[in-house]
Design a protein that fits this description.
The protein is an alpha+beta fold and 259 residues long. It has 13 helices and twelve strands. It folds into four domains: 81 residues, Arc Repressor Mutant, subunit A, CATH 1.10.10; 50 residues; 50 residues, Molybdopterin biosynthesis moea protein, domain 2 (Alpha-Beta Complex), CATH 3.90.105; 53 residues, Multidrug-efflux Transporter Regulator, Chain: A, Domain 2 (Orthogonal Bundle), CATH 1.10.1660.
Length: 259
Amino acid sequence: MNRKIFIRRVDIDALFKTNIPYQVRRVISKPVAEYYSTAEVIEKFKVSKDTVFKYAATKNIPRLKHGNKTYFSKKHIDRCFSLNTPDPDISEWYTLEEVCQKYDISVQGVHGCVSNNMVPRMRINGKVHYSKKHIDELLASRLPDPNIKEWYTMEDINNIYGLDPHYVSVLIYKNPVPKMRKGNKGYYSKEHFDELMRKKFPQPEYYTVEEAISKYSISRDALYQYIKRYNIPTHKEGKYIKISKPELDGLMNSKQKNI
């Protein structure tokens, strides 16, 4: 009525006459080993109980109740308090700008990397620094080998070999082809990729006419008769003819056995 909803008083009264006291049930869905107790957080990070609960509330740290104790997610607590309690064994640190410059990676890329891999960090003069050792281990593959001078882009590989980019990506993932990144573009060692292609797609082997005559001590006419009679594959390069090496070897070896 007039945009208002009315509920009968008798129905509301009846609802509360038969009510059952509500009890909160908390079930531990993950092993307690993945959680810190409140006392463990206080001891490890040298903070007060109020600070623990304040951070848990403001940072939305997952927690659970077990009996009279509160437990907090280890992963989230470590990430939250690592800025305040850096590992004393870490002596070298990168600023965000230094990581971006050295590894040619975006600010968003650095944030994702350090967050997903729990890279130790600390504040120095109000600025966040990241463990040099951990960053180098994670991003070393982005740095090019200084001994490699020539690189392919994916477009180069496609133009030269006519291979689908997805197929190339799988090949490079399964084989030790050095690669590097510049911005959002990938580069692949020309020497290593060419060698991979030679192994995966070997080129047919051929004799020149002179090589075949010399090896098997036959005349030019006899060689041409063999090619014609036994349909030995040939390949023409300019004005020269090349003869398939496996087929000619097989034919001549069988003839020698029959002698």
